[in-house]
Description:
- It contains six helices and 15 strands.
- By secondary structure, the protein is α/β, with parallel strands linked by helices.
- The strands form three sheets. Strands 1, 2, 3, 4, 5, 6 and 15 form a seven-stranded mixed sheet that branches. It has a six-stranded mixed sheet with strand order 9-10-11-12-13-14, covered by helices on one side. It has a two-stranded antiparallel ribbon with strand order 7-8.
Amino acid sequence: MITSTNPLELQVASIQMVSTPSVDENMEAANNFIHAAASQGAQLVVLPEYFCLMGLKDTDKIRAREAIGQGPIQDRLSAIAKEHQVYLVAGTIPLVAKDPNKVLNTTLVFDPAGQQISRYDKIHLFGFQTNTERYQESETIEAGEHPGILKISVDGQDWAFGLSICYDLRFPELYRALGQVDCHIIPAAFTYTTGKDHWEILLRARAIENQCYVLASAQGGTHPNRRRTWGNTMLIDPWGEVLSNLPEGQGFISGVLSKDRLNEVRSKLPALAHRKL
């Protein structure tokens, strides 16, 4: 159980799911995990990409899409954040796009009052093909255009978070564009094939090069659509050390972000101050 009351620390949790084609089923599972994390002291909770819907077909998410600020998924997320008094980084949900045949794959953040306070539309769209697997997100998802930042104040202490989603992890220029933050939050649904080779390496690299925490929330198992996701929800510190990890299945990890640890790493190796380009 997390018990820290130090204002220079923030208690966080990251949820891992194996989402199904049922929005109601997924929302109930998410709520249960959020309740459990909040009861252990989490002040900020992260859900994975596609937490609310892992459809049998890629086009299923188009039928579930909502306009910003409207719809049962967003209403439920707002109520959950308010009920459990947490900052809720709500993985991704499908929002209306300009193209009527596509969605925006969007992270929305809700504060403990249930207000939506930040948004990020996934910029980089995954494309991958082998003899047995094919993924082409651009066929059903419209790319976002702007980086996303979340800034909150807890117990008089300011915290800054970079928002990115899954495939974004492979593009370090995005994280540089986000500037100096305390933590990068990365909801994802990495495939098993790519995840086993690249997931942890990329997460630790983003933590090390940006000298910040990385909190990643993953899908972690075989879904009804037969897609297999890698899992390994993680919290990584600014030195690149994995503090907590859930290899597979459903559940959550908990941990603490520390301003003292951030300052320690950045003072003994001031790489961010040494940048030339």
